[in-house]
Write a sequence for this structure.
């Protein structure tokens, strides 16, 4: 019991460092000479068993500009989501994981048309959705709807024109990864909402159980 | 997998090495040549380039004005690097304000006539090809306090590779021609207007266009889907047609020392396709066709370890590039798997092996090699033969091998004849991949060497998109190639197919074949090949018309390809009078500037005096008229058949940096939340 508060402090300190640790990890991967070749999504390599590339492709970047924008945005999003919107790092990690898997699945299902992919921006688009939702829930400010519509418009523009702000012919920015990220983010919010409702119902139904009777409906009962 | 990573790294190395050469002086650029030690007052006033890319080929037209502010008449000599696969079709010199189109003559005859006219004080101009290195234009006279105007036009195939098209307007000279360097200096400054305009009218959808290294380039798309690229230094054009006076408004001075590169990316998901362009002016005559096959992405993967031999040029001309090349080579070695083996051979006056034979790519071996490479510098001559000879020895027949040759120069030590090199690679069971750095390497030889071993030659410009080169190389060497290619056409009489010998087709590459046909009607066109021991074919039905006149230019492309065949034969079998005569005849008939033929302009009355027929003038008129009518029509003028519903290969995708818009949206969200919090606090206080 005596160690408990110091553990909590340590845990809080670790948590506070999470965004910086994430950024440092991305930087390490960026500056490590072998990381890109080892981790980018390479369809041919995945086909012969290097399946880690399905997820690690999100973590490596093509160039300094690509890296700086994405890592900087990740840092600011993580801090903002945690400290302004109350989205904990565990939830953030959950979104990023779901979005990462979804994008990998789409890339794989697209077949040989997409032979290679790298970068975090698809996943960042996914993380953006719960942030928009949380802002709306907490503020009911209509400008949040404008932000949401602008995000959708940006992706619709990329998808319809094939053009992006930073067009690189060799590795063109993937509008479908951005769209998949956004879609997976929406799915995450919906799933979370559903789970929350289920839990709430559980709490309500347990609360109605007469005292002295055991409740079998979940951990919150009682 | 790793082996291909290594090759693509080598391409990166080759390309990255060129960055060292970016700071070329004016001696290593396109420009007006002046003998060293003398000062010529001649100036390039205007330099305007118009490029049309359509239906499988690009037509480049360069119009220039040279001025002589001095007090005596002078001869202008302008030189620029030979573009890849370029068939020069037109050279025009304005005499008395009227354009006079050049005629093609055997090289010596043209030079003699030029000197005669010059001695007689009459206006004349001559365009010659200096080996594989430069096109030279001589213009006489540029009168004192006056200027002259010339135009050159060339045509070249516009290939797609892994879904990416690439157009290069070469201006940087690699500085490997020591004789020329010791004699000439080149003034690359454009004192008036510099304009580069490229119009992309192709029949497949283009997703994006990019112009690296030219921040002032503007790229626009028309509602019809065509793309325009413009680079302009802002100096106003002459007021009226025919006026050659420099514009009054001063603008930023341009220098012809940086290549202009344009990339375009086709839409993804397009099917495998065969395209056919034809020209036949007379129903009873000979027709010409150009067949382009863009296969589906269906070549199988290669697995297992390989042996890699790297042959790297460390001669003096590599001085500014060698550190980058070797640094990249070191990075590349670290990406090999322990199943791979490697060895490194450096060459200048002789060949030196850095490794002791093939070494297993273990971390210890690689670290030792990397340490050894750190001590290497560049100096001496270019004994390419010694390097290649060493690199082609000692291969294990049981393992698949790749040899990567990186060079920017021309062999000048040891055996230097093309035939020596081609004999060296004949009957060797290795694939040679040549990375040709810059515009002055012996591109024909390096291309022949790669083709003879069923490998690939990659030319890299200073302005090239490094990641583009990397990605394309990666996608090729991960997969088996289509070998033993054959083209069969049933239903129409065809002949004179060129290239005579088809090289292997790697992933993402297109096959382009030219030929003649007689008569007309429907025909089945089949391209057969062998992929990893299995027969494969692509087939489609086309209509060969009795007459069709929309693309007369493909006659010259056929002629250029046939001359290339002759050059390859000469390189393999040695100089042969018949082959040379055949190449000269083709060049004369189709009006091409080659190492054996030159383009000569005389005053109109002097053509007759010299007994020169005005055949090229007629051909140019026909081509100009066809181009005009095409510009009025829809982009597609060619027949297209889907040969496979599977998609063709396409480059990879990046997630893209999220960019400022996304960052602004996040900031907006943060401000919204902060504002709401302040409101809550205000309410709480109240």
């Amino acid at each position: 019991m005596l160690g408990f508060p110091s553990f909590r402090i340590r845990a809080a300190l670790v948590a506070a460092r999470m965004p910086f640790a994430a950024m440092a990890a991305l930087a390490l991967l960026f500056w490590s000479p072998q990381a890109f070749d080892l981790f980018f999504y390479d369809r041919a390599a995945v086909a012969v068993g290097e399946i880690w590339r399905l997820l690690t492709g999100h973590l490596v970047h093509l160039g300094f500009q690509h890296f700086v924008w994405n890592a900087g945005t990740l840092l600011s999003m993580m801090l903002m989501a945690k400290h302004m919107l109350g989205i904990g790092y565990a939830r953030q990690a959950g979104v990023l994981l779901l979005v990462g898997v979804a994008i990998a699945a789409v890339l794989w299902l697209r077949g040989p048309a997409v032979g290679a992919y790298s970068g975090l921006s698809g996943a960042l688009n996914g993380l953006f959705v719960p942030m928009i939702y949380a802002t709306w829930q907490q503020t009911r400010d209509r400008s949040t709807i404008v932000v949401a519509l602008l995000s959708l418009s940006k992706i619709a523009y990329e998808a319809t024109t094939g053009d992006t702000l930073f067009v690189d012919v060799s590795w063109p920015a993937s509008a479908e990864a951005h769209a998949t990220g956004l879609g997976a983010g929406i799915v995450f919010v919906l799933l979370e909402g559903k789970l929350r409702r289920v839990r709430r119902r559980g709490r309500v139904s347990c609360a109605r159980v007469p005292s002295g009777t055991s409740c079998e409906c979940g951990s919150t009962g009682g | 997998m790793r082996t291909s990573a290594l090759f693509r790294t080598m391409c990166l190395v080759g390309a990255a090495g060129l960055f060292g050469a970016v700071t070329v002086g004016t001696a290593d650029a396109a420009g007006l040549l002046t003998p060293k030690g003398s000062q010529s007052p001649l100036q390039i006033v205007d330099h305007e380039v118009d490029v049309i890319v359509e239906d499988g080929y690009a037509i480049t037209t360069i119009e220039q004005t040279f001025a002589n502010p001095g007090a005596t008449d002078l001869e202008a000599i302008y030189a620029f690097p030979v573009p890849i696969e370029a068939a020069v079709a037109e050279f025009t010199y304005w005499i008395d304000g009227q354009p006079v189109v050049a005629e093609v003559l055997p090289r010596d005859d043209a030079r003699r006539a030029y000197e005669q006219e010059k001695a007689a004080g009459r206006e004349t101009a001559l365009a010659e090809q200096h080996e594989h290195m430069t096109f030279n234009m001589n213009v006489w006279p540029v009168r004192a306090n006056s200027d002259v105007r010339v135009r050159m036009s060339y045509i070249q195939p516009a290939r797609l590779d892994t879904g990416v098209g690439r157009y290069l307007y070469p201006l940087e000279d690699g500085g490997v021609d020591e004789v020329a360097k010791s004699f000439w200096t080149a003034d690359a400054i454009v004192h008036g207007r510099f304009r580069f305009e490229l119009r992309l009218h192709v029949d497949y959808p283009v997703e994006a266009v990019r112009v690296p290294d030219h921040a002032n380039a503007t790229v626009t798309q028309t509602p019809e889907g065509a793309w325009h690229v413009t680079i302009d230094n802002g100096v106003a054009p002459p007021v009226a047609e025919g006026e050659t006076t420099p514009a009054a408004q001063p603008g930023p001075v341009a220098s012809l020392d940086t290549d202009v590169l344009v990339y375009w990316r086709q839409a993804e998901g397009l099917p495998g396709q065969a395209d056919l362009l034809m020209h036949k002016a007379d129903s009873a005559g000979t027709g010409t066709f150009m067949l382009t096959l863009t296969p589906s992405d269906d070549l199988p993967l290669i697995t297992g370890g390989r042996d890699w031999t790297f042959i790297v040029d460390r001669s003096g001309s590599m001085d500014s590039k060698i550190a980058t090349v070797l640094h990249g080579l070191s990075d590349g070695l670290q990406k090999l798997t322990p199943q791979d083996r490697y060895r490194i051979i450096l060459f200048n006056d002789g060949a030196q092996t850095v490794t002791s034979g093939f070494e297993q790519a273990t971390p210890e071996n690689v670290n030792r090699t990397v340490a050894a490479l750190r001590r290497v510098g560049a100096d001496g001559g270019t004994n390419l033969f010694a390097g290649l000879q060493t690199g082609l020895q000692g291969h294990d027949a049981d393992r698949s091998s790749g040899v990567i040759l990186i060079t920017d120069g021309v062999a000048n030590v040891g055996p230097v004849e093309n035939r020596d090199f081609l004999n060296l690679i004949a009957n060797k069971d290795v694939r040679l991949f040549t990375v040709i750095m810059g515009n002055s390497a012996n591109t024909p030889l390096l291309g022949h060497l790669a083709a003879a071993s069923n490998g690939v030659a990659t030319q890299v410009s200073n302005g090239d998109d490094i990641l583009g080169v990397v990605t394309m190389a990666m996608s090729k060497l991960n997969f088996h190639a289509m070998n033993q290619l054959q083209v069969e056409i049933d239903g129409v009489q065809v002949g004179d197919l060129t290239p005579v010998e088809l090289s292997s087709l790697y992933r993402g590459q297109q096959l382009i074949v030219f030929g003649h046909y007689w008569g007309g009607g429907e025909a089945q066109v089949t391209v057969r090949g062998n992929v990893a021991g299995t027969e494969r074919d692509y087939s489609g039905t086309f209509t060969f018309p009795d007459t069709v006149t929309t693309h007369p230019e493909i006659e010259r492309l056929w002629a250029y390809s046939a001359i290339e065949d002759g050059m390859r034969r000469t390189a393999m079998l040695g100089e042969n009078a018949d082959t040379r005569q055949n190449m000269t005849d083709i060049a004369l008939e189709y009006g091409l500037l080659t190492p054996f033929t030159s383009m000569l302009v005389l005053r109109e009355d002097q053509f007759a005096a010299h007994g020169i027929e005005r055949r090229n003038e007629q051909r140019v008129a026909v081509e100009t008229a066809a181009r005009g009518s095409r510009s009025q029509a829809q982009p597609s003028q060619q027949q297209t058949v889907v040969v496979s519903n599977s998609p063709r290969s396409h480059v990879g995708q990046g997630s893209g940096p999220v960019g400022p818009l996304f960052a602004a949206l996040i900031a907006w969200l943060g401000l919204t939340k902060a504002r709401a919090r302040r409101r809550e606090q205000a309410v709480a206080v109240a």
